Structure formats: C-alpha cells, structure tokens
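Lab meeting, item 3. Inverse folding demo.
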C-alpha cells in the first residue's frame, strides 16, 4: 500500500499537549520544628551566657563562716544573622507565552530553595555535637547505637523527648528484618507537630525523623538531640517582593525572595553524632 495519510506525515505541525511543569524534587523544611527558635528584628548579634557553678560544702564546721564562691556569667556563644535570598526574572514575553503558570511556579520554587537551604544548614550541625559519638564510617547504624546515644543524652541531663534525625537509607538499615527492630509506636501529639511524611516512629522517648537533606556518603552524619542542642534565630520571615523592571527585555518582573536568620549549635552537649553509611 502507498500514499496513506498518517499522523507521522504532519506531526511537526501539531502542538504538543503539555500537562504540567515539574518542580525540582527536594526535601522540605523539617528541622526548624525540632530546634529552639528565637525571634527578633534587625541584624544585631544574639549572645547568651553560661555560669560557672560552685561547689556544695557538705560538712561545714559549726563555728566557721562560709566562703564565697564566684558566680559569674561568661559569653557562651553568638548567633549572627545574615540576609539570604534568590531572584527569578520573568519577562513579559515569557509570562504571556509560557504554557505553565510561570509566576506561580517560580514563587513556589523560591520557597523550596529557602526551605531546603535552612534545613540543610541545620542538619549540617550534627557533626558539631559534643555529647558523644556512635556508629562508624562505612558501618550501618544499629539499635544498640540508638540506645547508646539516648544514654549519652540522659547522662548529660538533656531534657526529652529526643529527636533522632536520619537519612532514609540509615532508617532502612535500622528497620530491616535482620536488625532486631523493637516495637515502634506512633505519637499522635508529635505527628501534629511534624508532617507525617517525615515522622517515622517513636520508641523509648525517642522520635525518629527522616530527612534526605543530610549529606549522603559512607560516613553520613545523623544526629540525636534535645531541642536546645541547636538554635534558629529568625529576624525576617521568608517573603517574595515582586518588582517591575521595564528596561530589561521589553519589560518583566523580578521575584525577589529574602529571609534573615542565624543558626548554630546552642548547647552542644545536648546532641550526639550518629555516623553510618547511606550507601
């Protein structure tokens, strides 16, 4: 047969059917709900102090005076806020011609960038914890490691409940059939605090959270901590300010996203490093 009229013969003239535009897949903001949050205005540094403790005298002679001991605060740390931000510029031609909702998609992606950056900053502090270390490079985390990390925190008088934030692969190794998984529970109160997509389970005063923003590798740093182990100092909430620029490319809109904050270790001994492979 010959001279058939087929789709192939005119396919280049047919417009494609676009369903949607996919934003970059990424983890969202998890850690800010798990740490101590401070608020304020401006960019002034926030400092905090700690006291040197005295010694209790258990046997004072009957006629003796007590000797005064020093009780003086010293600066223990500083949070210095910075301005962070990102911009997309959409020309009028792009906005009017784009088959997708370019402005809305761009705004959503700016929010994603901010959330991922803040979360990545906070999980990057796990390697700065000084409350102890469990696990090893190249090894897989075990329930014995979990128990040991919790013991370190309890011995340091860190208030509970404790958060154990792991990469997905580390949680996989912990919950594989051969790992001796204990009876895990679900805490409804904690589920209300954190999105259930990231909250995995609770056990023995420890809440397990999955966060793929932890840097992967054979020695991935997860962490178990009390809320005061880290601090997030928010000065200006995330926001997007559109600004018209008529001189660029025949006109268009800048989408300017900014946020002001500081972050850092607050009480380092209230956090334990958990090292294990994510391979």
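The presenter then showed the designed sequence:
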């Amino acid at each position: 047969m010959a001279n058939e009229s087929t789709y192939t013969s005119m396919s280049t003239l047919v417009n494609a059917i676009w369903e949607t535009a996919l934003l970059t897949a990424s983890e969202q903001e998890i850690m800010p709900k798990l740490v101590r949050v401070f608020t304020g205005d401006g960019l002034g540094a926030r400092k905090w102090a700690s006291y040197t403790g005295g010694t209790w005298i258990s046997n004072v002679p009957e006629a003796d005076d007590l000797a005064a001991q020093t009780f003086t605060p010293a600066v223990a740390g500083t949070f210095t806020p910075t301005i962070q931000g990102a911009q997309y510029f959409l020309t009028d031609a792009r906005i009017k011609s784009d088959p997708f909702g370019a402005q809305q998609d761009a705004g959503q992606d700016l929010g994603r960038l901010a959330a991922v950056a803040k979360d990545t900053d906070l999980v990057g502090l796990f390697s700065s914890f000084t409350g102890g270390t469990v696990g090893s490079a190249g090894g897989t985390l075990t329930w014995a490691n979990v128990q040991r990390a919790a013991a370190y925190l309890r011995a340091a008088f860190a208030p509970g409940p404790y958060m154990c934030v792991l990469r997905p692969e580390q949680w996989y190794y912990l919950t594989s059939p051969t790992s001796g998984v204990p009876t895990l529970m679900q805490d409804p109160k904690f589920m209300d605090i954190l999105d259930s997509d990231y909250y995995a389970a609770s056990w023995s005063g420890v809440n397990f959270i999955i966060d793929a923003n932890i840097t992967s590798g054979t020695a991935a740093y997860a962490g178990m901590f009390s809320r005061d182990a880290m601090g997030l100092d928010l000065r200006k909430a995330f926001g997007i300010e559109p600004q018209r620029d008529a001189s660029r490319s025949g006109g268009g809109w800048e989408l300017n996203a900014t946020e002001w904050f500081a972050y850092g270790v607050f009480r380092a001994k209230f956090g334990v490093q958990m090292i294990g492979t994510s391979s």
